[in-house]
Amino acid sequence: MSLSMYQASVPVFVRALNNLTHVLKKGEEYAKAKGVTPEVLLQTRLIPDMLPLLKQVQVVTDMAKNGTARLAGVTPMVFEDNETTLDELYARIERALDYIKGFEASQIDGSEARSVTIKIRGNETQFDGQTYLLYFILPNLFFHCTTTYNILREAGAELGKADFMGKP
Amino acid sequence: MSLSMYQASVPVFVRALNNLTHVLKKGEEYAKAKGVTPEVLLQTRLIPDMLPLLKQVQVVTDMAKNGTARLAGVTPMVFEDNETTLDELYARIERALDYIKGFEASQIDGSEARSVTIKIRGNETQFDGQTYLLYFILPNLFFHCTTTYNILREAGAELGKADFMGKP
Lengths: 168, 168
Known about the structure:
By secondary structure, chain A is mostly helical. The first copy, chain A, has helices spanning 10-34, 38-42, 53-72, 86-101, 105-108, 129-155, 161-165, and strands spanning 115-120, 123-128.
């Protein structure tokens, strides 16, 4: 069996989203134990001009759902970015999981050369599917998963690298 | 052309290592401008019980060189982890780049089912090549690239997301 575009995308995103929920739950435990309100937790940042925890999680789910849809050549489902609680964020992650699991491998396999055009900071940027997955979606997805972890880790949550990685 | 194990590994690592050098150079500029010594910069951490900048960079290069070698079925070259300056870190990244660029695609393509056994926190863990690349090496590599970025970003370096991503 040789590596395929599907195998390098959807199952990798599923694993990252499940790990993200796990990391957030540990953040929630920490916040409860310390009397930190969910509002404060969701607005916690590494530095004021970086995105807060809430937005980091929103972007991870966007990378997973948009990446999957665009590789399949369909218009991504729109999420409204209106979450204000941790439970709503968990539900967003679940919605993204349900959505990406709904794609068949056959929709994504063979998308190496499929044209993907997106706006990056206002500029239309065109990729082939393989470049989009390997050089845009995966680095972005892991960047925002890691930053979510780093925000919670720095805040004091009981997290270790194994929480980020998940079970093999 | 279909996605291959080589395409999903070596060129992705090359891009990440080049971006890492770029991010570190911006960190170096910041340190120079603020009179922060390289020794202090290399020991900067997000929180005292996380790894310092120096170690984050060492781990990124380890993931790239070990990942490449093990997928090719050869014993990875050993780096001594004895860097104490930024210039030595840049040289380590270059050494890793030279090493991984020395592998032929034919050594890594077809490694999906190749057995890879490594120690993770003291426990022997066995992967097939595809699982090792997608669920161990890539998340780890991007975790430590992102944490390097976050350490420097939080410290005050003039960094933006585009510095992390590099040019498409």
